[in-house]
């Protein structure tokens, strides 16, 4: 047989031996996709309506549609949010570009809006299912085919953050992060294995030994491409470069102690970082300086620095071996080189030094103050300052999480033998991601990958203990056709059956059992009241004069974006900013990127910056209005014209809103109710602007009027009103009111007149809302020593006018002015309210 015939025969043998695993992985991929599209009826609604399951998904669809409208130009700066500053978009371009290309292909160059929405809805489910493939290969090269198959099964049904962020409708870049970071680790691992097996040396590069270099080079370039893809989905992707660098330091040290060459590692690292640098460079925005959250020189410099680090460590190692220096000097030299490098960076570029020093804290430290109220930024292990494993168990199952810890212990124990590079890589990778979920629960969608691989690794060790490889070989030699299978089953031993049962019961069934309930919790967002309120806003408020789908240039450094005079902001809590923009087509002051929040970040001694938290917690109308005026630096413009509030802002999450000011004392106090103390809203809460607007319907406010409310829902609102009536002398109707309420900030009409000196004067009217509900609006004052009095009122009794707010909540009749025995009716025009005109009585 010729060498060519042997090569062909070997290739055929590989196909025969690998097709069962290929088929198994394909089946697992489709099962993974199936579970992710189970709740499609809650996302793809009748009439071609698609409702996405998170506010960031709505924003991604906005950036996608702007991209398609202006293809291939994407939106880098968005003036339609964080008014009046606008926001640079930190979302990477790749996630949207892949969806755009898919939409253009399926739509033959002209995709409909419904097709784009459908592609966007299914996209995370497809990427989540595809993640099965690199997980399989990592498991395979860690512990063989059996480990790879088990890892693929476990990640296919992994519950918690990974599943939720890869469900249909969760159109966010997180699942793309998981896919591309795992592909990066897979190709980097393959490059290491290939280079080490071929005993690659740097001399092979100079001597052009392509037979040695070809495969490691291809895998390294692919690793660099996948790392770039990962970073182009999320600028914070430097996390995985950090992981690889930490791994490399340990690998260099181990190789040096074992007197082995690390050229394979240096070659892989240099080629990977070089490929990544070349691919990321076109997306850098020089005006961003050094930024972790936007594509800046930081991403290029770190990649080049990592490349230089790999080269330097390899060079130092070769010198160590040439001079036969003691191995324990090597880690000390690495430490010294690292310190020296930081000193040089601090001198050459203090901003870059500051970013490098503080970047780890953004991932590994528990958030404090306002950021601690962000659910995805909270710690996996601490809730309310108390250590707990409940979140870890619910995200990874109890056995899965414990198995991941045990798997790391086993891999760590291997360090005392002769660990393979892939074993140390998985150990360092898993440990650092474990530290990341200590800081922020959002990184659980990374750790699910590690849990699946480590659990499968333990399962593979169990199967090895019962000699599964021998059984595998016997099956391959005995089964030549389906008819041979029953006979071959007699080869299975009882301990092997028991091992499989243990794996199914303790590893596979828990993840599947946890995943199915998770799929039943997927619903399209926003909830109906917010959708209705934002839709109403888009139809009944003046056009702000902005081209919604245009690509705008960012303002020059230090300058503000130049808005038209017709532009205005909409104040609400940051949770709802994307809904206001994408459904309401209006400009929110704050958004889910926590832009426009205001408040304090480090100390109570800081100045309380104007923003959403400062406005909503303002203790008086005057201070709230001062915040609105301060948000926009232009003296003739206020930061917002409309305010949107919901029942959650007024009750359940109010303390979270206040946390961003670092001043939460006094909003709630303990009351003895029944047989226990209960924390209930106190005077400070009812004095806040949020309570005045939502809970008290804006009664008595001079420049804020309710213009619309949605249908009422059962919320904590009723309890708050009962507390107000019982403990604070209120007389509120104890009924549920609109879940979302829209208010307008106006100049207010000035009603003036005369009465007897120092006489009490009252003005009131009945407000009829669009829901048919009525409530009393009233003010009272005392005439001065000359008998003069003045009221500023926000409601027009004459109805809306063209070109202005088309409100559907208004007085049911004229204002009634009363003092002494005198009663007068006062009508107020909309022009008087908007222009602040005087009405003499």
Automatic annotation (TrEMBL):
Pfam families from the xrefs?
A: AglB_core-like, AglB_L1, STT3
Give the residue spans that cross the bilayer: 21-38, 119-137, 149-168, 174-195, 238-257, 264-284, 296-316, 328-348, 392-412, 424-441, 447-466, 497-515
Enzyme superclass (EC): transferase
GO molecular-function term, one example from the UniProt record: metal ion binding
**Which Gene Ontology cellular component annotation is one that this UniProt entry carries?**
plasma membrane
Protein EC: 2.4.99.21
- Record's catalysed reaction(s): an archaeal dolichyl phosphooligosaccharide + [protein]-L-asparagine = an archaeal dolichyl phosphate + a glycoprotein with the oligosaccharide chain attached by N-beta-D-glycosyl linkage to a protein L-asparagine
Q: Which cofactor does it need?
A: Mn(2+); Mg(2+)
UniProt-listed InterPro entries: AglB-like_core (IPR054479), AglB_P1 (IPR041154), Oligo_trans_STT3 (IPR003674), OlisacTrfase_arch (IPR026410), STT3_N (IPR048307)
The entry's family comment says: Belongs to the STT3 family.
This chain belongs to which protein, by name?
dolichyl-phosphooligosaccharide-protein glycotransferase
């Amino acid at each position: 047989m010729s060498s060519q015939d042997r090569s062909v025969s070997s290739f055929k043998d590989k196909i025969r031996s690998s097709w069962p695993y290929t088929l198994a992985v394909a089946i697992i991929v489709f099962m993974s996709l199936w579970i992710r599209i189970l709740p499609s009826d809650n996302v793809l609604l009748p009439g071609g309506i698609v409702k996405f399951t998170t506010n960031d998904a709505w924003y991604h669809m906005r950036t996608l549609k702007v991209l398609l409208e202006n293809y291939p130009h994407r939106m880098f700066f968005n003036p339609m949010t964080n008014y009046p500053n606008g926001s640079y978009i930190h979302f990477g371009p790749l996630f949207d570009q892949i969806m755009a290309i898919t939409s253009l292909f399926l739509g033959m160059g002209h995709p409909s809006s419904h097709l784009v929405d459908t592609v966007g809805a299914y996209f995370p489910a497809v990427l989540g299912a595809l993640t099965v493939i690199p997980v399989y290969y990592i498991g395979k090269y860690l512990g063989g085919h059996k480990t790879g198959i088990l890892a693929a099964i476990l990640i296919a049904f992994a519950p918690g953050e990974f599943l939720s962020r890869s469900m249909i409708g969760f159109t966010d870049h997180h699942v793309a992060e998981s896919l591309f970071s795992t592909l990066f680790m897979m190709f980097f691992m393959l490059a290491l294995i290939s280079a080490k097996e071929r005993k690659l040396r740097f001399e092979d590069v100079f001597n052009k030994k392509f037979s040695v270099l070809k495969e490691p080079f291809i895998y390294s370039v692919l690793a660099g491409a996948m790392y770039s893809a990962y970073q182009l989905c999320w600028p914070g992707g430097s996390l995985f470069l950090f992981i690889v660098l930490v791994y490399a330091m340990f690998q260099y040290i181990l190789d040096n102690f074992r007197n082995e060459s690390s050229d394979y590692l240096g070659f892989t690292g240099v080629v990977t970082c070089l490929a990544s640098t070349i691919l990321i460079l076109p997306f850098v925005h020089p005006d961003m300086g050094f930024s972790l959250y936007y594509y800046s020189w930081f991403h290029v410099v770190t990649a080049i620095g990592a490349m230089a680090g790999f080269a330097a460590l390899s060079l130092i190692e070769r010198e160590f071996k040439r001079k036969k220096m003691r191995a324990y000097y090597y880690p000390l030299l690495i430490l010294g080189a690292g310190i020296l490098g930081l000193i040089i960076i601090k001198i050459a570029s203090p901003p870059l030094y500051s970013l490098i020093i503080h970047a780890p804290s953004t991932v590994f430290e528990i958030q404090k103050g306002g950021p601690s109220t962000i659910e995805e930024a909270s710690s996996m292990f601490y809730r309310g300052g108390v250590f707990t494993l409940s979140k870890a168990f619910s995200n990874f199952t109890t056995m899965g999480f414990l198995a991941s810890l045990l798997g790391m212990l086993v891999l760590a124990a291997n360090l005392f033998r002769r660990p393979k590079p892939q074993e140390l890589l998985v150990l360092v990778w898993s440990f650092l991601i474990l530290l990341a979920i200590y800081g922020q629960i959002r990184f659980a969608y990374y750790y699910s990958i590690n849990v699946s691989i480590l659990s499968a690794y333990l399962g593979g060790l169990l199967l090895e203990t019962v000699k599964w490889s021998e059984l595998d070989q016997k099956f391959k030699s005995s089964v030549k056709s389906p008819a041979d299978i029953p006979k071959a089953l007699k080869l299975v031993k009882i301990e092997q059956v028991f091992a499989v049962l243990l794996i199914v019961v303790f590893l596979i069934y828990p993840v599947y059992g946890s995943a199915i309930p998770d799929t039943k919790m997927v619903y399209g967002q926003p909830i109906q009241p917010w959708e209705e309120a934002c839709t109403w806003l888009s139809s009944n408020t003046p056009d702000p004069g902005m081209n919604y789908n245009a690509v705008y240039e960012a303002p020059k450094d230090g300058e503000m974006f130049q808005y038209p005079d017709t532009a205005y902001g909409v104040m609400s809590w940051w949770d709802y900013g994307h809904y206001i923009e994408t459904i309401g087509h209006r400009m929110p002051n704050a958004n889910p990127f926590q832009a426009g929040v205001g408040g304090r970040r480090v100390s109570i001694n800081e100045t309380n910056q104007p923003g959403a938290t400062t406005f909503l917690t303002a203790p008086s109308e005057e201070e709230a209005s001062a915040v609105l005026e301060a948000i926009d630096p232009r003296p003739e413009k206020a930061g917002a014209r409309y305010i949107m509030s919901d029942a959650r802002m007024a009750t359940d999450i109010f303390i979270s809103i206040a946390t961003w000011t670092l001043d939460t004392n006094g909003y709630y106090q303990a009351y003895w109710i029944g047989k226990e103390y209960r924390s209930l809203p106190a005077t400070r809460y009812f004095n806040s602007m949020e309570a005045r607007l939502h809970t008290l319907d804006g009664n008595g406010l001079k420049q804020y009027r309710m213009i619309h409310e949605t249908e009422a829902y059962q919320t904590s609102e009723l309890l708050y009103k009962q507390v107000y009536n019982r403990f604070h002398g209120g007389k509120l109707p104890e009924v549920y009111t609109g879940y979302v309420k829209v208010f307008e900030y106006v100049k207010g009409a000035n009603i003036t007149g005369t009465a007897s000196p120092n006489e009490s004067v009252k003005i009131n009217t009945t407000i009829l809302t669009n829901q048919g509900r009525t409530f009393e609006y009233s003010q009272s004052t005392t005439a001065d020593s000359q008998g003069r009095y003045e009221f500023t009122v926000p409601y027009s009794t004459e109805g809306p006018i063209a070109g202005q707010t088309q409100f559907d909540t208004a007085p049911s009749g004229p204002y009634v002015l009363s003092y002494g025995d005198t009663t007068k009716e006062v009508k107020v025009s909309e022009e008087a309210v908007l222009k602040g005109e005087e009405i003499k009585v």
